[in-house]
Each structure stands twice: as C-alpha cells, then as structure tokens.
Amino acid sequence: MSAISSPFLSIAHQPKLSNPNSFVLLPSFSTPTKLTPPSILYNPVRASTNESPSVAPAVTVENSDSDESTLFVIRARNRIGLLQVITRVFNVLGLRIDKASVEFEGEFFSKKFFVTDSHGKRIEDEESLTRIRNALMEAIDGDGVVSVGPTTRGVVVRRPGLGMESGERRAKAEKMFALMDGFLKNDPISLQKDILNHVEYTVARSRFNFDDFEAYQALSHSVRDRLIERWHDTQIYMKRKDPKRIYFLSLEYLMGRSLSNSVINLGIRDECADALSQLGFDFEVLAEQEGDAALGNGGLARLSACQMDSLATLDYPAWGYGLRYQYGLFRQVILDGFQHEQPDYWLNFGNPWEIERVHVTYPVKFYGIVEEENWNGEKCKVWIPGEMVEAVAYDNPIPGYGTRNTITLRLWAAKPSDQHDMESYNTGDYINAVVDRQKAETISSVLYPDDRSHQGKEQRLKQQYFFVSASVQDIIRRFKDVHSNFDEFPEKVAMQLNDTHPSLAIAEVMRVLVDEEHLGWNKAWEIVCKIFSFTTHTVNAEGLEKFPVDLLGSLLPRHLQIIYEINFNFVEELKKKIGLDYSKLSRMSIVEEGAVKSIRSANLSIVCSHTVNAVSRAHFELLKTKLFKDFYELWPQKFQYKTNGVTQRRWIVGSNPSLCALISKWLGTEAWIRNVDLLTGLRDYATDANLQQEWKMVRKVNKMRLAEYIEVMSGLKVSLDAMFDVQIKRIHEYKRQLLNVLGIVHRYDCIKNMEKSERSRVVPRVCIIGGKAAPGYEIAKKIIKLCHAVAEKVNNDSDIGDILKLVFIPDYNVSVAELVIPGADLSQHLSTAGHEASGTGSMKFLMNGSLLLATEDGSTVEIIEEIGAENLFLFGAKLQEVPTLREKRSDKKVNLQFARVVRMVRDGYFGFKEYFESLCDSLEGDNDFYLLGSDFGSYLEAQAAADKAYVDQEKWTQMSILSTAGSGRFSSDRTIEEYAEQTWGIEPCRCPF
User: Fold this and answer.
1) Is 735 known to be catalytic?
2) Active-site residue among 87, 840, 860, 964?
3) 840 catalytic residue (yes or no)
4) What pLDDT, in 10s, does the model give residues 300-342?
5) Is 990 helix (H, G, I), strand (E, B) or coil?
6) Which candidate, 817, 805, 834, 819, places its Cα nearest to that of 723?
7) Cβ neighbours of residue 40 under 8 Å, at least 6 residues apart?
8) Long-range contacts, 911-918 (Cβ 8 Å, 24+)
9) For residue 373, how many other CB atoms are within 10 A of its CB?
10) Is residue 480 annotated as part of the catalytic site, yes or no?
11) What global pTM score does this model have?
C-alpha cells in the first residue's frame, strides 16, 4: 500500500481505489498540547434505508490516555468536496486538526482526524463531543447540505450517480464548491465594499457621487444578500427534514420598514452604522428613506407581521401568504382639517426586499360552467372557466432573531394570462389585450375595494379567491414534490385562516382534492377537517362577512356547489343532534336565507376547522355566550383562545433602542429579547433611584424625538415638561376618539374659566391623536375635522399657552407608531366594553413603559392581572353593564359636563356649526350607542387620577417600570408557541449553524 504524506495528512491508497485524485490537502494546523480523557463510542446512524449497515455513515470518537488529542473516525460514501466540508466543520467549531489520514475502499472512505480545542487541549466534555459529532453527521448525512456557522456557506454536494463521472463535470462541480465556500462577511470593511458595489452595479450610480436614497438602496441590497444566504439554507434544510409546516393565510400584513428590523435580527446593526459612518452617511437617515409597505390596515395586519417575526425567531417551519397590493390602503392627506385620500404609491421606487419569482406562477380561474365527465368509470366535475389570470409570486425573506432561520412571506400579484394575451395579439385585438391586462392587475391593486356596489363586492370576492387559489396550488405543489399519498397531507400541512377573508381556501382544497386529485368526497372532507384552523377577530354579528349566492355562483360556480354540499351534509348531521329546531338550524347554516341569499364565511370556517380561536379571554367569552353560542354548544372542544401579542424586537429593540440598552443593563443580559418573560426581573428594581433616574432620562430623549417630529410636521412647539397623552389607532366610533376630543374640550373649558393663579397648578398636556378613517365613513371623517377645529382654537389661545396642546398626526402608519409610542407618557384605549376583540396597541405602549388609561375591554382584563389595577387608570362601564345601559339610554340623566361640551360644539364654538350637527345628534338620547355620555363622568375621574399621579414623578416612573416588567405575557412569541402546541401541531426546526 502506497501513501502520499505530509506532516498532517496521509492518504493511503488501496487496490480498490476508484478516484486517487479526489482529495484536497489541508492547511497547516497548530501544534497540539497534551491531554488525557476517556473514550466515547457513538453507534453508526444510517443515511437512508437503502444502505446496508456496513456502509452506513458513522462517526466514532476516541480519547486515549496515551494520545494528546481527540480522535474522530469518520466512515462515509465518498463524494466531491466532502473532505473540505468536514474540515470546515472543525474550523467553524473552533477546533484544530493536528493530523489526518484518509483510506479509500472503492466509493467509501475512512477518515481519521486528530483534533484539539482552540487552546490546544484534548476535548473531554461529553456535551461538546456530542455537539461536534452531530455537526459532523449533519455534514456527511442526507443530501450533503451543511450549515455549520456564520462564517461558512452551506455547500450543496451532489450525490454519486448524478452524471458526475466525466472529468469536465467534476471540474465544474469543484469550481462551484470553491465559489460557494464562504458566507458574506459582516465586518464594516466588507459591508462597505458590498454597499459600493451595489451603488455601482445595482443602483447604477457612480460610487463617487450618490445621495441618501441611493445609499439606502445599496445598503438594503447588501443586507438582503445576507438574508438570502440564510434564507436558502433554511429552505434547503426544511426540504430535507420535511417537517409539518404551518401556512399562514392573511389578506393583510403591516410589515413596516424592513431595513432596521433586518439588521437587528441579523445582528449587524452596529456594523452597518460603522460602515456607513466611514462613508459619510448616517444609518438613521438612510432608514428614514424607506417607505412603509402598505399591505394592511390596523391591528389585524400588524398582528400578522408580528406573528411572522415570532415564527421565524422560534424556528417554526412556516410560510406566510398574502397579496402584493400595488397601492395598499391609501395615503391620508389633511387639508383644512378634512381627510382626503390619495393612492399610496409605495412601489414607485421599487422594493429591494422582495424577490420576484417569475417561474412561480399559477393560473387562477373565474366564471365559466361546470360539466360532468367520466374518469375511470366514475362521474367527476370539471370546471371550464370563462376567465383566467396568472398569480405571480413575490417572496419576502423574514429573518428570525438569534437564529439562522429565515422564513418566507409569499405575496401574489395578478397578471393577465399569457394564453389570453397571445390570442388577443394574434388577432390584432391590441386594445382588448391592454384592457384585459389592466383588468387582471386590478385584482391585486388596492386593499379592500369599496364593496358598497355590486362591482365592489365582485372585486373583493375575486381578490379573496385569487389569493387562496394561488396559495393552495403552491402548498399542494410543495407537498407533492416529496409525497405521493394524500393520507400524509394532514401530517405535513396545517393551514391557518386569519379571520374569514381566506375562508374560500376550504372550498378550494375540496375542489382540488375531489376534482383534480380524484379523491372521494368523504376522504377529501376528512383531510380538510384536519388541516384548517380559524382565528376570528370579530365581536358582533354585523361584522361577519357574507357573500351573495348569485355573485358566488357566477364568479365561482364549482365552489358554490361544494359549499352547498358541505352545508347539506352539516345540516343533516345537525338535525340528528338537535332535532328539527328550525330557528337554530337557520342560524347555524352556512347558507343564509333571506331577501339576499348569502354564504356566511364565518359559519363555513367554523364547520370545516378543527379549532376556532378567539384573540383574548374576554373575546372568548363573547364567542361562547353571544357570537357563536350555538356552535360552542355543539362543539365546545373546538373553541380556544390565544391572546394576541406583539414582537418586542420591533416595539422595543427596534423602535426604542435606548430603553432596550437600559433593560439589558439592569437585567444583566440580552436574553430577554428572545425570552421576554425575563422582563419580570425589572420588578426588583422598580423603586431603585438609579434605575428611575436612567428610566426618566430615556423617556425624555424619546419625548424630544417626538417633539421634534411634531414641530417639523405641524410647526407646533410643545413643552417636554408636559404629559404626552396619546391615542393613535384607526378612527372609529367604537374606539371613541370622539370621547377623547370632548374630554379635551372639557379640559380647555375648565382652564379658560380658571384664575391665572390656578392655571399654574394644572398638569400641562400635549394631546396627540392619529389614525385614518375609511373613505366612506362620514362620522369618522367628522371626528377628524372636529379634532382639527378644537386644535385650531386651543393651540392659538394665548390664555392657555403650554398648559394644553392638541396635535393630529396625519397618515399614521407603523413607522410613525415607532416614533410616537416610545415618547408617550399616557396612552388611551377607550373602546366601549365588548367591542375590542384584543387590542394590540395597548401592548406596544405597555412594553415601552407608557401608562394606560383604558376601559376593561379586550386584552386589558389580562393586562390588569399582570401589572395590577393600581398601575393603570380604568374607567367606564363593564361588559355586563353595557346592555342595561343601552336599554335605559333615553331614561338616564345626562351628565351635565358632557351636555356642556356637546353644546359648545353644537353652538359653533369651534366653528363649522352645521357640519358638526349630525355628529352631535349621534351623542344624544337613544343615538348614543357607544355610551359616551354614560362613561363621560368616569372618564374625567380617570383623567384626574392620571394628573395626580403625574405630579409624583417617582411614583409615575415606578408605575412605568412595572408596566414594562409586566408586558412579557403579551409577546407574540408566547402567542405563537401556544398556537404551535395547541392548534397546529408543529415543532421547531432550527437550521443548524
């Protein structure tokens, strides 16, 4: 036996050697230091069931008393580049290879590596040995994909027998491995090089002359490059492990800006800032260049974004699906105090965070007829569409924090069918081709088309089906790539319906399984009932979505047939359980009879899902006792609640870095960023004078930022000594921004009637209101106008000065919230009890140490349990009191203070007397549905209590610290863990470093 030798490597050649040149000499390694530990032997693990035990990959570890290093013996099938991969594993783990030998036996080898730790010592710790051994098995087993560290690129190694025999192909493969050998580096110099390369080659600007926006684009592409590395490795690893995946279906995602969130989760925020500083740019300035992704409206959309962040951070195998809206909701412009809506052209300058997948497209069908055909002797339904469009995928990588896992948010855009385009062009019908293109693209143009007209209802239904059809096709395609038996579908797929918007996915899965995969109805129904879970965010029956049967039958004829059959089977089973209670049968039926026959989306979702989730404990009680009482009595085991949460990585780490640093300092760790329950440790220091002083300083800095923004935005200067009192959320009667404005009117009236000596004792306030009103919601628009009319009077009254200011922040979005929330002293959550399902806004303020003034609605009940009622300001009617108060509205004596402020508005004290008349009418007698008059006295008492507490800054700061300390329960991490364990049945699948 001949051998090629070096001081550290000997390759022994045996007669059966099939590839004598398939090795790479290793670099020199440091000299070992002597050590003496015991021997550990690991049993071999098979790579696949096809291999015999004699050739199964194995890693054996030996520690001999006479040897100076730990011996790793690796036996596996030989393949190109594997020797490099193994040595790279040792390098990344900080180990030194003293010497190595390789013996070949045909297509198999036995490799011996004598290894020491970074200090030149033998490795004795059993846990470390297990970790090393697992990393090595990861490298040699499976499909050859290895991800062992932040500085080493995952390498794809081709298996034997895949056309690699020729020397040319072998050389190409070796070249490919060499080119993929390293991850992009994250030091400032490397980042600078990448930024400048993107300036020149992606943005196409001179690297010697580029502005802030071009620098932002280059930085974003540089960060995205690093995301893609992790993203590819995650997807390859998931495909190999084939875990059960959760597919999160939501029509809305308010992602906010991606740059800051991405660099935080990648752990390169400081490195990016340093790199930019040396190039003459400021990271914060560049981050401001990014526009908000306008993909949602309000809490449901932001909740979806938080849950995607938590799914990635907690290593769950997940995909998010939604729509890529061309214009999103709308951009709010305020002119003379009136709201005007303009298209939000958020994609005008491109979106560097998305990747268009031109090869991932699916046909989506509309209209047409359903025919019967014979298939293998059985009749089956065939849907012949009258119109088709293409769904094109746009992928957005979502990185986790403290993990390599990066998951996908896949958004669909509508394009015209290529086939239809070609037919139009071939016949010279160019105009119709253009019209059809515009018609197709309209499907994904605008979030929530106005559905007051028939055309609007049709457009919304088209939008919802387009979204679920493309998503279902993608999910089933991914399943069929690996599996051939649909019996395994529920073991690999869980589908989450985020409210009723994706409910047509149920009928679509049934259609695909029955009509295209030719499963029997009963088998398909069994599968559907195992894969779907449903979360509702609705609190009253009026808010439940319905679609007219005539419209559904025209647009989706096959789906209407399927829904009818589902409903028939359900009602027949229901009759067996409850008898002929026609009133109850009518309420529970998926099909609603009436003047306009309709399909109830919520009933469809409940009947076909294995779990129905409420979003808070109070919401759960509403579902059980009112909204879905009949269904709860039938299937109590189906109903659960998972209180919503928000991600602390966006709402503390990203939006409030000063507070993040302070928390880490006093807790002595940054582990709370992933394990937010550790925030409770702040309770031990709530009365510590040093923490209180630092806490107040952080809050003052945040108030300065907000005050500067207010001045730039409105020209109004505000005092930092004033209490910053904030209410920012969608404008709606039930959220009662009108109660807030009337409270400000009362405060203004009181101050005006005080002596000058008394005014000096008033706690100064800056009242901040923000939010959008739906375009067709006239009362909400009038509330916005009243806010501006009151602000005009108050802010220009020299008698008032800095004692009271009122500011309306236009075009409220996620980025504005990230600025406003950290600067708030007090936040108001005023919904009438029983109207807020959860309320994630209060959780964001809570995390940032803002004190809450709130009704006992939604999640507030659970917040009280965590921080104590003494640490927030409660007011208003309780849930059980609301029905009685509504019945007695006309008999109840009117609060005199309430009557006075309403009269001031009605009499034109703030101008626009006729315009506000209908608004005032909605507050009197039986018209006061949301009980502003009933709660006004209690509201003023809570405001007085807040004033009193603010005077005692030591007490106020203690309450602020305790608010943050008690916010851990309201992290979306906890919400997702509960969903994963109790609803979806999925487990973490962590992509290895």
Assistant:
1) yes
2) 840
3) yes
4) 888 999 999 999 999 999 999 999 999 878 899 999 999 999 9
5) coil
6) 805
7) 61, 62, 63, 126, 129
8) 911/789, 911/792, 912/785, 912/789, 915/782, 915/785, 916/782, 916/785, 916/786, 916/789, 918/779, 918/782
9) 10
10) no
11) 0.83
